[in-house]
Each structure stands twice: as structure tokens, then as C-alpha cells.
Amino acid sequence: MYPCNKLLSIALKQANIYLVTKSAAYNWDLCAAHAIIQSINGQILDLRQVISYYKENKTKENLDLSQFEIIYNNIKPNKFQPKDYACKPFIVYHDEQDLLAILPLLIVNNILIE
User: Fold this and answer.
1) Domain that holds residue 36
2) What CATH number does the domain containing 83 carry?
3) Domain count, the chain
4) Whole-prediction pTM value?
5) Taking the CA of residue 24 as centre, how many other CA atoms within 13 Å lie in the half-sphere pointing to its CB?
6) In this structure, is residue 113 part of a structural domain?
7) Model pLDDT for residues 71-96, shown as the tens digit of each residue
């Protein structure tokens, strides 16, 4: 299944969380589905940043998840290289509570992020 199909499963609320632990998608694979997911108050976040923050702070209180949103505007001035547009590992959700519930499990199980 392609990343965009899985992302649409989140948007349609057929799945709660989609976790990608390596650079397996490109900006153009995510951006349209990201807009749809945002329209239902979901989000695509940089997995490394979310886990790092949670490990450091050990709290979900006052957590501003928008600071971890995937960024697409990293356009390179050099010759086009697809690898320059590979997305970092990410996590997608439609309900913030699902993300907050899974975060401690990702830490305890020491999930491998490539």
C-alpha cells in the first residue's frame, strides 16, 4: 500500500495512527493528504522531534504539537535531487488523544527510527 492510501485511511478515520520510522516518502506523497488530515484536526508530525521532546520533558501537559509539524518548504537551490525531498520519519493521527496515548509506548519499547 502506498503512503497516500494509508494517510487517507487516517483522514477517513479507518485507522488511528500511521507510523513511519524511516524516510520512505517524499513531500509530494504527503502534502495533499496532509491538508485533508488537517481539515479533520489531525496532523503529520516529525517523529524524531516528538519522541525527543517527550523523552526530555516526560509530560504531555501543555504540549504544543504544532511545533513538530512536517515541513515542506525546504526547497534546495541546486540541481533537483529527489532524495533532498524525502520526508523524515513521521507519525500521523486524526485524534490527538490517540497520539498522546501511544507516545509512552514508543519510548518504553525504544522504537528504532532510521
Assistant:
1) 3-108
2) 3.40.190.80
3) 1
4) 0.85
5) 16
6) no
7) 877 777 777 777 777 888 999 999 99
